[in-house]
Write a structure and sequence with these properties.
It contains three helices and no strands. By secondary structure, it is mainly α. The chain is rod-shaped and about 150 Å long.
Length: 128
């Protein structure tokens, strides 16, 4: 039992060290020259600029969508504005009509009215 455990442990350690060696061999550590570093920095700068531009485009689209939503809500309130304007117009008409009737009443009150003296309508007074 101990022998199996030890052999299994040895195989496991050997396999893991082999995997580490092959991984390290795939990526050789090479010193970059100054020109290579500059080229890599330029490429990274271009990539960063492109991601920032894409983020800005996405933000602009989001802003445009929000503006359209706000405009749609505002245009939905046009019905309410029309109803308010209609109510104001009706109120103005009513006030104009009331002023007209009041003016007619005042003119009628200023006129002097004569009571007609029609003999047929006047009853004679009987004296005793």
């Amino acid at each position: 039992m101990k022998n199996r455990l030890i052999s299994l442990l040895v195989i496991l350690v050997t396999a893991s060290s082999f995997a580490f060696v092959t991984t390290a061999a795939d990526k050789p550590h090479k010193k970059m020259t100054l020109a290579e570093k500059g080229e890599q920095a330029r490429i990274e700068s271009i990539e960063l600029e492109q991601t920032q531009l894409q983020k800005a485009r996405d933000a602009a689209k989001a802003t445009k969508l929000r503006e359209q939503e706000v405009l749609a809500k505002h245009q939905g309130n046009d019905w309410e504005a029309k109803q308010l304007e209609k109510a104001r117009a009706q109120s103005d008409e009513r006030l104009t009509r009331q002023q007209k009737y009041l003016q007619q009443a005042q003119d009628a009150a200023k006129q002097t009215h004569k009571i007609p003296k029609d003999p047929k309508t006047v009853e004679p007074v009987l004296s005793e």
